[in-house]
Amino acid sequence: MHTRVPVCTRCLRCLVEKNHTHWQPLLHPKYLSTAAAITPAPPINQTITSAPPLARYPPTQPPSHRPPEFRKSQVHRQYTSLLRSTPLMLLFQHNNLKATEWMAIRRELASALSAHDQSPSSDSPESNISHSIKLQIIQSRIFSAALRIVEYWDPSPPSSTAPPSSDPLDPLTASSAPGIPNTTPSPTDPAFTHALSRAAHSAVASKKRSHPLTPLLCGPVAILTFPAVSPAHLKTALSILSPKAPDFPAPTRRANPGYHDPVTQAGLQKLMLLGARVEGKVFDMEGARWVGGIEGGLEGLRGQLVGILQGVGAGVTGALEGAGRSLYFTVEGRRMMLEEEEKGPADGKGDGEGGA
Fold first, then answer.
1. Full-prediction pTM beyond 0.70?
2. What is the rounded distance in angstroms from the CA atom of residue 76 to the CA atom of residue 264?
3. Residues 147/24, Cβ–Cβ less than 8 Å
4. What are the tens digits of pLDDT across the range 295-328?
5. What is the Cα–Cα distance from 194 to 66, expressed in whole angstroms?
6. How far apart are CA 128 and CA 296, in angstroms?
7. DSSP secondary structure string for all residues of 209-248
8. Cα separations (Å) of 153 from 150, 160, 197, 198, 200?
9. Distances in Å between the alpha carbon of 353 and those of 341, 344, 345, 346?
10. Separation CA 104–CA 241 (nearest Å)
11. Which neighbouring-strand residues pair with 244?
12. Helices 71-85 and 140-152 sit at what angle, rounded to 10 degrees?
C-alpha cells in the first residue's frame, strides 16, 4: 500500500497563489501519494558469469614498437602481408623509368598474361591468375625490414601455462588472478605478436645482413608478384620483361606490335632481372629461368619426380633381385656339381664289377 504524506492546507494555498497554473490540480486533494520505484531484476546470465577484462586499446590497433600512425608503419605491414601471401616473386632493378614507360610495360604484361589464360592449353587450376599478377615499385629499406620479420619471426602467441581455474570468465576467478592476460597498452607486453610489436623488432634486430636477398635490395627495386607458383605464367612474364632466346623469346612484331613500340622498348632497357623468391627460397637469374622453363608446370614437375622415384625403385628392386638370383644360381651349380661327383664313383664301381 502506498504511503500518504499529509500536506498543510495553508502552505498549499500560498503556493497556489504564486503559481496558479501548475498547482491547479492540487486544490482539492489534501494528501499526496508517492509512487514506489520498480527496479527490474538482472538477467540470469549476469548472475552466473562475469564480464571479461576490458582491453584499453582498439582491437584493430594494438600497442606497437613503431608508431602505427606513420605511413612507414602501414607500408611495413603491407609488405609483411605481401611476403606471407605471395609464393612467387621476381625482383627487378629499374633505372629512372618514366610514368609512360611504366604504363606501356604494364599494358604489354597484362595483355600477354591474359592471352595465356585464354589459350586452350591452360587447363591447370592456376591458369586464371593473370588478374592477380602485379608489378609494383617498393621501398627497399622497409621491404628488407619486413622480409626479416617474415623469415626470422614466429608470430604464434606463447602457450598459456595458467591452470583452467584461472579463466577470466569464471565467477570464482579474482580480478588479480595470474590467468587474466595483461591488457594495459604497453608495447613491451609479450602477448603482442604482430609485425610492429616490440618482440618482433627485438627478434630480428641482429639479423640485418643475414638474408640472401639483402644484397639485392639496394637502390630502386620493383617486384612482380604471383598468387601461385605457375611456371607457365612465369615464362610468359619473363618473355616480356626479360626475354632471352631460345627458351624465353620476345614476341614478334607481327604478333604483338605494341611490344616493339619505342616507349615500351625504352622502358624495358631500363629493367634488369635480379633474382626470385620461390616458396621462401632465393634464386638467381638462371634459377628463376629454370623455374619458368619447367614443362607442364607443377603437374609436369610432379610427373618427373614420380618417374624418378619409380626409376630408383625399379633399380633397387632389380639390384636386390639380381643378388638373390646370383645366389640361387651359385647354390644350384654347387648342388649339381656335388651330385655329379657322387655319381662318378658309383658308376666306376659298377663298371669294375661287370668286367670281373
1. no
2. 31
3. no
4. 776 677 777 778 888 777 777 777 777 777 777 7
5. 11
6. 15
7. S-STTGGG-SSSEEEEEESS--HHHHHHHHHHHS-BTTTB
8. 6, 19, 11, 12, 6
9. 20, 15, 13, 11
10. 11
11. 248
12. 50
